[in-house]
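Predicting holo structure, ribulose-5-phosphate bound.
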Amino acid sequence: MPIVAPSLLSADFTRLADEAKMLNTSEADWFHLDVMDGIFVPNLTFGMPIISQLRKLSTKTFDVHLMIVQPERYIEEFKKAGADILTVHYEASTHLHRTLHAIRQAGMKAGVALNPHTPVQLLEDVIEDIDLVCLMSVNPGFGGQKFIENTYKKVLKLVDMRNDSQTNFLIEIDGGVNQLNAAKLTDAGADVLVAGNFIFSSNNPIETIKSLKYCR
Ligand SMILES: O=C(CO)[C@H](O)[C@H](O)COP(=O)(O)O
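Done. Tokens:
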């Protein structure tokens, strides 16, 4: 059964507290929180102040995905805001090894996100320093985009890398996840399904979350 992480990028920001309460009563495992800086990706979202306010409303795991340049600048701040998992982009991190160690040192799980064009093999030399690999299955920046089919192959390769290295990082899929691909992704080896638009634009988000949770 996958871990389900609704992405609040697609939530109604005028009713964030209600959306958080809804997720608390649902079978969602995590909150997925997308931080965008308008430089790494062509969009802006929110940062520490919103996350720390949400932190007061939920005890679920906060999975914070930084789509920002030089993410190492804010590690301590996101810890203080309430992040449990802090994911940085491979493409935005000049000193990835140092950044992953700093995230763990700060008391969080360390994640690395890969854009659709970035090969998973590039993680080989930091594989033991990673708690989660987030495979972007859309080009990051916006919710509601179409799932990129090549992601399945990347999941299979990552599963092989995980077996070969005898590590146990989680494989997360982010972008365009829905009822058409959830089971196939889980079968391929994905552990975490992030979904924004599919959940928040549905008539019954609680049931939609359940459909992902029990897709297998
Ligand atoms: O990181 C993201 C965008 O960069 C979002 O988390 C992702 O796109 C999920 O949204 P959706 O399920 O609507 O595709």
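Residues 3-213 form a domain with the TIM Barrel fold (CATH 3.20.20.70).
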